[in-house]
């Protein structure tokens, strides 16, 4: 528990350090934040930190970013949240924009094209691994019997939506969450009349959240369209990480033609290998749409809701966690999120063009799903193989 006011310079330094070192996604971010706030500085009790993880997992958008904002808010209030959140986000944002300039330039060197094509070839395997990692906890949360059957249905609906509907996946997630609320509310009514209902197992499911806003119509192009795409990523996505892919791909590639399928794969790979949240992939999309200004604008729109949700809602997180309807929504939307992440692997794989890219995809699948190794070394190795393919004179996509 904080007993004295922590200087903003200290918050900027410590949260910025985590932003620089935070390779590996949310698990790495959570570990570094806990080590700082609980173990080294003693600013938060262990129970407070765990409650922060649980609460931010109920919100749409990037959970680890929201945890960074929340812990900085606990340390120094609104000013701390703004400084800590910005310091956490900016290092990865700067790096990903620099890499975007290299990978998306009009005439990049051949080895750069090869590295991009190699890393992009592994992205479908990364999506499949991300989905598989969420399955056990989600199954435990769902329960048995009819609830397990619904779990499978939600999973299939999420996968179909990711493959077929693209940016409107969010409506399927809303529907599955609402359906589970209705099913469980009905079961509790029956239970109160004398029948028994199996208790729901405890445990954390995959990230999902009760939406705060309803999607509207995007502008036909320009910064209005970019704002809508980034807004969906930051405020209307559930599950974080790879669930943003189908939300962005249809718009960025097929609707507005800001980038090709291959460039979108590069964007996802860059979001994985840079420090900070995977949501920063949206900055690459923004760069493709309107240069550096577009990248900064897209990042601001995508991360803005995270700041607002924490600043306006942090004092009420305990009540949010205890709300039965919220918990039921998560139970239904969770498997749809898993299906969406798994389903996104199919269009990502179909975007590959060269046989050697499929060979890299097979190797990445074995590395991630069979050997259960980590993502960043996989993508770096895939990029190196792509560079070798380019140097060897193999055809590039």
TrEMBL record:
Pfam families per UniProt: Chromate_transp
Signal peptide positions (record): none
Sequence intervals crossing the membrane: 81-104, 111-134, 154-183, 284-317, 329-350, 356-371, 378-396
Keywords: Cell membrane, Membrane, Transmembrane, Transmembrane helix
Subcellular localization, as worded in the UniProt entry: Cell membrane
Membrane topology: Multi-pass membrane protein
UniProt KW Disulfide bond keyword: no
GO molecular function: chromate transmembrane transporter activity
Gene Ontology CC entries for this record: plasma membrane
InterPro entries assigned: Chr_Tranpt_l_chain, CHR_Transporter, Chromate_transpt
Family (UniProt): Belongs to the chromate ion transporter (CHR) (TC 2.A.51) family.
PANTHER family, A to Z: CHROMATE TRANSPORT PROTEIN-RELATED (PTHR43663), CHROMATE TRANSPORTER (PTHR43663:SF1)
Record's protein name: Chromate transporter
